[in-house]
Amino acid sequence: MAAAEIRERAREGRLRTRRIGPDDRAEALSLLRADEEENLVLIDFVDRLGRALGPGEVPPQIYGAWDGARLEAVIALRPSIVLSAEAPGDAFDAFVPLVLRVPSGLAKCDRRQVAPLWDALRDAGRVSTIDRIEIAYRLRPEAMVAADARLPGVARPARFEDLDELVYAARASLWEEDRPDPADGDPIGFQRWVKGRLPRARIVSEDGRTVFVAYADVRRREGWLVQGVYTWPDCRRRGFARRGMDSVVREAFASGAGHVQLAVVEGNERAARLYEQLGFEPFAELRTVLFH
Q: Does domain 141-291 have CATH number 3.40.630.30?
């Protein structure tokens, strides 16, 4: 369906959209908590509305679709495009005019939800640089399989002196995916972005060298979301990733988190096996589209 036709349907639809602010936080969270696992990212975005941001963080830009006084669906446009789980069909029509205002960005949510949104963006002339399927995995406390205590490496939170290695890892992960490297054009800005994530970084070191990094980008009672997992190539298949992930999930559950989740690019069997050995199970298929 062409973007113009969707916009016309949105004008005629029953749902009305407006931007969500701090005063709407409780109502939006009530809707999203009906499915805490699939809505974890949106829950975190909504809860941050109106609150102080950390270095390099983008203020959330979130809209809701209302049927009269009842909130039916929520969508984030920034920092990334994410639609609430089980959104009614006409919510897509209602949100597309808002999505078409985004000149470039990242859409990441259930593959069935991304499809109509991306179709509209593509019809409007957007071009994708990444379009892939990812499998979302979750781990609940009762399913955790402890890693062998004899695994190599020392797991710990990252410190400021690890920053150069974290910058390298962030760049190297982009190179491996054939993605543009922002540090080529703005090395200072890229370092500042990595530095802003430093409190969320967890590493494994061996003989004083960082060999594994992961970021606990969402840390909430509902759950933790782990992203940016990277092991130095010459240190793979030696147990460092298992050591690091075991430490992260232990920290999450010690803090009271209900689950830990992450996503694996479809076809990455090595990563999938690692997480399954730790007790993770697949629970959703995501589609990630990076576009401009």
A: yes
The length of the chain, given as a count of residues: 292
Q: What is the CATH number of domain 3-126?
A: 3.40.630
pTM: 0.92
- CATH 3.40.630.30 residue ranges of the chain are 141-291
Segment 202-228 mean pLDDT: 97
Contact assessment for residue 182 and residue 190, using Cβ atoms and an 8 Å cutoff:
yes
- Cα 276 from Cα 226, distance rounded (Å): 15
From 213, 200, 234, 226, select the one nearest 155 (Cα to Cα). Answer: 213
Place of tokens 């892939």: 132
The model's pLDDT over 229-243, given as tens digits with 9 standing for 90+, comes to: 999 999 999 999 999
CA dihedral 43, 45, 49, 51 (to 10 degrees): 100
Amino acid at 78: R
Phi-psi region of 105 (alpha: psi -120 to 50; beta: other; left: phi over 0): left
- Whether residue 78 contacts residue 60, with contact meaning beta carbons closer than 8 Å, is answered with yes
Going edge to edge, which strands form the sheet with 16-19? 16-19, 61-67, 70-78, 82-83
